[in-house]
Task: structure prediction
Amino acid sequence: MSGLCVCARLQGTQSPHLTLIAEFGGSMNRIALRVNVALGFTAWLSLGVAYNSHAAVLAHAEVGRGTTCVVSGAGAPSCYGTSAGDVSPAGVHTVAVTPTGIGPITSIALSIFNNFVCVINSDKAVWCWSSDGIRVPFRLQVADVPFLNVTDVSVGASGAIAGDQDACTVLENSTVACWQFEASGFKALNSTPVRGLDGQPISAVTQVSVGYGFACAVTSNNAVLCWGLNNSGQLGRGFVTPNYSPFPAVPITGLTATLVSAGLNHACAVTTDGMVKCWGSDEYGQLGNGQSNIATNFPFSTPQLVQGVSNARSVSAGYLFTCASLADASVKCWGQNEFGKLGHPTHVKGKKVVQPFSAVPLSVDLGPGAALNYAVVSAGRDHACASGTFGGFHPATNTATPMGLVVKCWGSNSFGQLTDGTTNASTRPVP
Result:
């Protein structure tokens, strides 16, 4: 799992409760998990979190194009919307579907462009399904690169990363292989290693994210490398290439980050000091730098500092918008506001969106509730979800209460992807 740091110390080992406390950086972002210890103790594990949502095994929701999958434990995900993972025709799923046959999973990724969903199971193999092809999970096979010992996966769009790759995976040796699905979806084709300017496969990769025709990765020394198309400056190299010739993987100068997320034609990263920087297309203000170029679609080909965001825990670049979760448990979104997917009350009137975009981050109105910790946000095609927890470790009393998962979603709901049991779009987070 990329970007997750757990450093534990034991307390009260002679008492009926064993408490493990996780330290992350300079701030405490706590999620409590109860574990039964062989000696009969009850253990609570509190996790410091700064991670890319699609790679996280912790309880959270991940969204794509018309689909939301909720990971709430060590088993298979529960999915809503068009690619729920069952044999029924693609369409509405307002009730959760649990795909069968894949076993416990360690990572999940959904495409914001098409309807593919891919997971890594406990055997480190890749399983995928799609409402556009094989609707139930199938295990990927490819002749030259067996899909075994995979540590991360990201699903993007067909059509462009040096040969129609749909997705990329980080292998256990920390290299990256990108590949495409055949038309029937039964297997992957043309799996190729990602190479740098020197022609050698890139290495020491911890996390990968695929956009439309390009992809980015983070390495163990916090470098960010991007490759593929650069027609909108989405490789972050300081220039735009108008043709559609893909580039090899090259580090972005001056950027060190803990995670990266690729959207349609832009990408964003959480920097090592907790800020968020974005680059690429900015027609709807999806870079969050206070500017928008809706008339000229002039891109920014170097990383831009997102205004009003600090101590970021996760970032998710969606189709034409971006969201981030912060250490204070808040969530902010910026960019295109179609279907109210920015989740901000001042930008809607009733159910009508009155401001089409925002070039600066807006606080999502998550409303009252028991959630103490919105640690993960996932931005899709036209909707987004924030995942939080209630319960956790309480320093004042040195106690912990059981963890529960809270998922709130907003935006388009044509296929039931907001998880509230309806197909009603919502400009405010539900349920």
User: Anything to note?
Assistant: The CA atoms of residues 385 and 409 lie 4 Å apart.
